[in-house]
């Protein structure tokens, strides 16, 4: 810690936020509050439904449980701070809080990517190896895969924060963003950050790009194989894959845009970041519930049981 303190003279950062206009700040506050509450409530509803429903015990819903948990934590890493700053004229965040936000942001962001990848693998096995599916995707295997996803997320986030902690900050301390992230912090460092940026791109950028490419190839193979299935089987598999593809595009597109390029600031960066840290996470529960009959039926049963017990 003493080494880190010697490398910096900045103890806090100023966040410019999404806008400096008072009227727009009120609009931002109301909009983000709606999106954040909707995200948390939607994901908690999915978590509770999967936890207490006897019909949602398949590996897909096991992974969906952790995706909803990761999405809730991911949105919480930025949204409450952004909402609070919309009410404040001076948006100040301490150095330690800033580093914590970077770590948490990448921890749950990478966990979301890994869980989506596991859901694609589950879908692939279910369609390509239907007879061996119960053996391959048994409960113990799913638990091990989730543990590995947590370990991978922790390693990724730790490697990112270690690089950022090495950066010397000696002023200015104005972050042209609404949260602490890698590229805005690189711009404030009092050193040549070219090599560090390459390491950051290799870490975050490669994870996003390679995972996205792997997922799209797997879904293409899955959809191509559906021609050999029955009409009912094709319909169910196509519905599941379509849902997953939508989530993959919404989650990975902004991530690739942000983390696979040089540390330059573009006017759309803030809105793209808002979209994948808040907007996409608001849409995920809607996509997984409205397009999933099993989840909707489980929610109705759970609601009816709770209503009966209360009466």
Automatic annotation (TrEMBL):
<dbReference type="Pfam" id="PF13853">
    <property type="entry name" value="7tm_4"/>
</dbReference>
<keyword id="KW-1133">Transmembrane helix</keyword>
<keyword id="KW-0812">Transmembrane</keyword>
<keyword id="KW-0297">G-protein coupled receptor</keyword>
<dbReference type="InterPro" id="IPR000276">
    <property type="entry name" value="GPCR_Rhodpsn"/>
</dbReference>
<feature type="transmembrane region" description="Helical">
    <location>
        <begin position="60"/>
        <end position="83"/>
    </location>
</feature>
<feature type="transmembrane region" description="Helical">
    <location>
        <begin position="103"/>
        <end position="128"/>
    </location>
</feature>
<comment type="similarity">
    <text>Belongs to the G-protein coupled receptor 1 family.</text>
</comment>
<keyword id="KW-0552">Olfaction</keyword>
<keyword id="KW-0807">Transducer</keyword>
<feature type="transmembrane region" description="Helical">
    <location>
        <begin position="27"/>
        <end position="48"/>
    </location>
</feature>
<feature type="transmembrane region" description="Helical">
    <location>
        <begin position="140"/>
        <end position="165"/>
    </location>
</feature>
<feature type="domain" description="G-protein coupled receptors family 1 profile">
    <location>
        <begin position="42"/>
        <end position="288"/>
    </location>
</feature>
<feature type="transmembrane region" description="Helical">
    <location>
        <begin position="238"/>
        <end position="259"/>
    </location>
</feature>
<feature type="transmembrane region" description="Helical">
    <location>
        <begin position="271"/>
        <end position="290"/>
    </location>
</feature>
<feature type="transmembrane region" description="Helical">
    <location>
        <begin position="201"/>
        <end position="226"/>
    </location>
</feature>
<dbReference type="InterPro" id="IPR000725">
    <property type="entry name" value="Olfact_rcpt"/>
</dbReference>
<keyword id="KW-0472">Membrane</keyword>
<protein>
    <submittedName>
        <fullName>Olfactory receptor 4C11-like</fullName>
    </submittedName>
</protein>
<keyword id="KW-0716">Sensory transduction</keyword>
<dbReference type="GO" id="GO:0004984">
    <property type="term" value="F:olfactory receptor activity"/>
</dbReference>
<dbReference type="InterPro" id="IPR050427">
    <property type="entry name" value="Olfactory_Receptors"/>
</dbReference>
<keyword id="KW-0675">Receptor</keyword>
<dbReference type="GO" id="GO:0004930">
    <property type="term" value="F:G protein-coupled receptor activity"/>
</dbReference>
<dbReference type="GO" id="GO:0005886">
    <property type="term" value="C:plasma membrane"/>
</dbReference>
<dbReference type="InterPro" id="IPR017452">
    <property type="entry name" value="GPCR_Rhodpsn_7TM"/>
</dbReference>
<keyword id="KW-1003">Cell membrane</keyword>
